[in-house]
Amino acid sequence: MKICQVEGTLVATARIGSLQNRRLLVVKERGSNGKQVAVDPVGCKPGDWVIAVGSSAARDAAGSKDYPSDLTIVGIIDYWDDASGQAGANAGANPAPKTSSKAGVKTDANPSRRT
Amino acid sequence: MKICQVEGTLVATARIGSLQNRRLLVVKERGSNGKQVAVDPVGCKPGDWVIAVGSSAARDAAGSKDYPSDLTIVGIIDYWDDASGQAGANAGANPAPKTSSKAGVKTDANPSRRT
Amino acid sequence: MKICQVEGTLVATARIGSLQNRRLLVVKERGSNGKQVAVDPVGCKPGDWVIAVGSSAARDAAGSKDYPSDLTIVGIIDYWDDASGQAGANAGANPAPKTSSKAGVKTDANPSRRT
Amino acid sequence: MKICQVEGTLVATARIGSLQNRRLLVVKERGSNGKQVAVDPVGCKPGDWVIAVGSSAARDAAGSKDYPSDLTIVGIIDYWDDASGQAGANAGANPAPKTSSKAGVKTDANPSRRT
Amino acid sequence: MKICQVEGTLVATARIGSLQNRRLLVVKERGSNGKQVAVDPVGCKPGDWVIAVGSSAARDAAGSKDYPSDLTIVGIIDYWDDASGQAGANAGANPAPKTSSKAGVKTDANPSRRT
């Protein structure tokens, strides 16, 4: 699954019927400038770091095998433990996730490099 | 789902039967120079910014589980809210979507960076 | 779907049985140096610009849900209309399709930039 | 399948129900700085080099056709034989796997270039 | 399908049960430094240039719809005809396949550029 940050809500009035009125978010993958659109069944807000699943699993994750999604948010990241010691080397290119204000388990600014 | 801009209509006379006479569009992904071909069940015109779904979901989105598409347009983008404040930094490389003249909800030139 | 140019026929004597004796072509994606192998149910010749479908749709396009293809040619490109006006900027890196001699609908050398 | 190194455990309290309470690991693909999230049914620890499967196979590998994973760890790498003689050329960019302390079959530091 | 060269055999003792005792090979895609792991139902040896199929087709190619593979070798490349005349331009970056010693149809060193 990809590690993405939510940028904002996307509005698309003209759409195929099977997309229904699900919430679509613009997300940016960690360490990349490219933006994608993800379905949000979790309830995220801009700035949240999330886990997004692709491939055919994105459809089930959106609630139905027939839902036409190839990227669906499946969770909001609280933090992760990083034992490699190499994360700091590419901190500029790949900023670590900020603590999700939703989950709020951690309050330090850069949970992947804490300790 | 990918954020793409419609470039134009593709004509391919010699094709497999299951492609039928569906409309095929050349699209360019945002922030990339690469072009791809997408099936258009929505009704887009050149210049429109659209959401295109890939993977196996592209088939259902095209109307049938048997349709041989791996990229199908599922909606025309009106605009999106961008709360990150970082969008301006890579505006050169990743131009933000122009307002779709079809949906016409927004009229400012660069909806993703409006404040 | 990807826009590819046919390079030539690939010969692979030792193969799994389910590949059968289908024609395999080496193709190069537009704007890339990487080569891939595609199944050809259309009947292309070297130099043709084609549409190739990937993902699970490649299997149905090859004629059977059980055929082990992840890239199948589904049509030969005649030309496309390009209304963006930006195509010329990256002409060096991404040469536009030459007119397919098979379909022969257009005879100008660079159909994507015709006006 | 991809060759990845386990970075650490990811905590995501707010998640969709179908993710269940499976263990999610942050992994880094060999020769890349990008991080992804993988489901771990094997039982890895940080630093392990693993094989991770993507596409629809990630779902079955996670234990169920309905599990919403697009990247699942399927094995821990002990070592591999490298007969090409070219591995040394890109050792800087693509560090070879360290011996997995779990499997413990090999004890040399760089099994892919042993002779 | 991808064009890959076999690097060597991978040993992974700790693995999920559904991987069974199938042979796993480390392969390198042509024109890339990245290595991946592929299932080998054909019987390749290091140095062989092979066709590897991804996506959901990798599972059927491995012998069962339930096998958790996303990259399976489906054939050993003998040679291919290259009619584009451009292959020589990127020979440094993308070395052409060496003749497979298994299939042995061709004996010239660089079959893709033979004339």
Describe the structure concisely for a colleague.
By secondary structure, chain A is mainly beta. Helices cover 4% and strands 29% of the residues of chain A. Chain A has a five-stranded antiparallel β-sheet with strand order 3-2-1-4-5.
By DSSP, the count of extended strands of chain A is: 6
CATH homologous superfamily grouping of the largest domain in chain A: EutN/Ccml
Strand content of chain A: 25-35%
In quaternary terms, these chains amount to homopentamer
Which fold name is given in CATH as the topology of the largest domain in chain A?
OB fold (Dihydrolipoamide Acetyltransferase, E2P)
| N-to-C span of chain A | 25 Å
Work out the largest interface and the residue count of each chain. Answer: A-B, 35 and 40 residues
Shape of chain A: globular
Rg over C-alpha atoms of chain A, rounded to the nearest angstrom:
15 Å
Low-confidence parts of chain A: 84-115
Shape-level CATH architecture of the largest domain in chain A: Beta Barrel
* Element-by-element helix/strand order of chain A: EEEEHEE
CATH class of the largest domain in chain A: Mainly Beta
Mean pLDDT of chain A: 79
Overall tally of domains of chain A: 2
Biggest pleated sheet of chain A: 5 strands, antiparallel
Strand order, sheet with most strands of chain A: 3-2-1-4-5
